[in-house]
UniProtKB/TrEMBL annotation:
<dbReference type="Pfam" id="PF00406">
    <property type="entry name" value="ADK"/>
</dbReference>
<feature type="binding site">
    <location>
        <position position="32"/>
    </location>
    <ligand>
        <name>AMP</name>
    </ligand>
</feature>
<comment type="similarity">
    <text>Belongs to the adenylate kinase family.</text>
</comment>
<keyword id="KW-0963">Cytoplasm</keyword>
<dbReference type="InterPro" id="IPR027417">
    <property type="entry name" value="P-loop_NTPase"/>
</dbReference>
<keyword id="KW-0808">Transferase</keyword>
<feature type="binding site">
    <location>
        <position position="134"/>
    </location>
    <ligand>
        <name>AMP</name>
    </ligand>
</feature>
<feature type="region of interest" description="NMP">
    <location>
        <begin position="31"/>
        <end position="60"/>
    </location>
</feature>
<feature type="binding site">
    <location>
        <begin position="58"/>
        <end position="60"/>
    </location>
    <ligand>
        <name>AMP</name>
    </ligand>
</feature>
<keyword id="KW-0418">Kinase</keyword>
<feature type="binding site">
    <location>
        <begin position="11"/>
        <end position="16"/>
    </location>
    <ligand>
        <name>ATP</name>
    </ligand>
</feature>
<feature type="binding site">
    <location>
        <position position="93"/>
    </location>
    <ligand>
        <name>AMP</name>
    </ligand>
</feature>
<comment type="subunit">
    <text>Monomer.</text>
</comment>
<dbReference type="GO" id="GO:0016301">
    <property type="term" value="F:kinase activity"/>
</dbReference>
<feature type="binding site">
    <location>
        <position position="128"/>
    </location>
    <ligand>
        <name>ATP</name>
    </ligand>
</feature>
<feature type="binding site">
    <location>
        <position position="37"/>
    </location>
    <ligand>
        <name>AMP</name>
    </ligand>
</feature>
<feature type="binding site">
    <location>
        <position position="173"/>
    </location>
    <ligand>
        <name>ATP</name>
    </ligand>
</feature>
């Protein structure tokens, strides 16, 4: 099994690149944002619990997202590998993920960091807001999401860099060039 984290701020292109890797290589994409939005759409108790926090642009509790990921890993142990998209977002989540994978004899093999500057992110998210109308993409909420990334998620960069598994990719390049850089960063990995 090969396990990857697609890492970066909201709007960096993690979801787009994850979907390409799913189609091309048979990975399973685990996006906590997608899982939480599905919970809201189904009006489950979980969906009701997280709605206000998500709309504010803040992070939902570690406990909730760790449980979602734990369930998905346990249900898909025969997968070729997982792509974690939008998870982990805090140090506590990263430590929990290590423990979950380890309990099944697995680990994170690569962390691909998509590097995009804040001005470009704001431009992309404003465009997505106008096209798709996702409420937390509105420019005011997006500032909160970006702040959460810088204060709570960016500290994971040294956490993974120290292990030698972090690779940085220029996420400002054209989509195909980003894909090619990711492929290069994954070359040689064997599950
Ligand atoms: P995303 O689509 O990944 O940007 O996620 C949308 C929203 O879902 C975030 O702004 C958070 O409120 C929540 N969320 C998604 N993933 C996580 C996570 N790993 N930890 C905490 N909150 C999350």
């Amino acid at each position: 099994m090969i396990n990857l984290i697609l890492f970066g701020p909201p709007g960096a292109g993690k979801g787009t690149q994850a979907k390409r890797l799913v189609e091309g290589r048979g990975f399973i994409q685990l996006s906590t944002g997608d899982m939480l939005r599905a919970a809201r759409a189904s009006e489950s108790l979980l969906g009701q619990r997280v709605a206000a926090v998500m709309d504010s642009g803040s992070l939902v509790s570690d406990e909730i997202v760790i449980e979602l990921i734990d369930d998905q890993i346990s249900q898909n142990l025969s997968a070729h590998g997982f792509i974690f998209d939008g998870f982990p977002r805090t140090l506590a989540q990263a430590i929990a993920l290590d423990g979950l994978l380890k309990s099944h004899g697995h680990r994170i093999d690569r962390v691909i960091r998509l590097v995009v500057n804040d001005d470009e992110l704001l431009a992309r998210i404003t465009k997505r807001f106008n096209e798709q109308g996702r409420l937390d993409d509105n420019p005011v909420t997006f500032v909160t999401r970006l702040a959460a990334y810088h204060s709570q998620t960016a500290p994971l960069i040294p956490f993974y860099a120290d292990r030698g598994i972090l690779r940085e990719v220029n996420g400002m390049a054209a989509m195909d060039a980003v894909s090619a850089s990711i492929d290069a960063a994954l070359a040689g990995l064997k599950g």
